[in-house]
Amino acid sequence: MNKRDDLIRELSANLETVRPAPTPDLLALAWLLASVAFVVVLTHLWGPIRPNALQQLSAQPRFFIETTWGFVAIACTAMVAFRAGIPGTLGSRFARISTALMTVWLASYVFGLYSPALEPSMLGKRPHCLWETMVYALPPMLAGFAVMRRLHPLRPVRTAMVVGLVSGMIPALYMQIACMYIPAHILQFHILPGMLIPVVGAAMAWLLLKRS
After folding, report:
1. What is the DSSP annotation of 33-63?
2. Is the pTM higher than 0.85?
3. Residue 38 lies in a domain
4. ∠ CA(40), CA(42), CA(202), 5° rounding?
5. How many domains does the chain have?
6. What are the respective helix, strand and coil percentages of the chain, to the nearest 5?
7. Per the domain annotation, does 5 fall within a domain?
8. What are phi and psi of 88, to 5 degrees?
9. Pairwise CA distance, residues 187 & 111, whole Å
10. For residue range 77-87, what is the model confidence (pLDDT) as tens digits?
11. Alpha carbons 190 and 172: distance in angstroms, whole number
């Protein structure tokens, strides 16, 4: 037996069984559903949703498509985040598709400034919706960070930003059901606060990396 065989035997003698990496899409789905449930429950505890919102979902096709598109975009972005946590599982094509879905959804509110999906109305106004959007996003983001610490993201700051983006967009999307529907209000008090969460997430990840 040559030295090469001896080396292989020595290196493999103390190997321990390693659990396979979890399926990132299942992790993303579990985290997303838990985050959505958290946001919905907390929103209802704070106050009632817009009285006619559910009827509008069933009666107004464009509003239904806008809402569904938003959820699909958020779900795909969550999958991007968790795939980024396991090296080799995130393809550039899927990341581009997710970015396109998110961009089109957010752009729909800009288009709504000129042609809204619903008749703009003050009905359902929540006086603290801006702060609700931001506060409701923080626990899901922190939970996502806790899961990510068990994975191995190659670009932790960027991954934290994506987790923050999903966390911020969940309450931003639900606010178009819970709060009044006016595109300018949605952009300023729902989308913009939600877009600040990935900045917070990236800053937190950067500080943790710097300290460690």
Report:
1. HHHHHHHHHHHHHH-PPPTTHHHHHHH-HHH
2. yes
3. yes
4. 85
5. 1
6. 75, 0, 25
7. no
8. 90, 0
9. 11
10. 999 999 988 88
11. 5
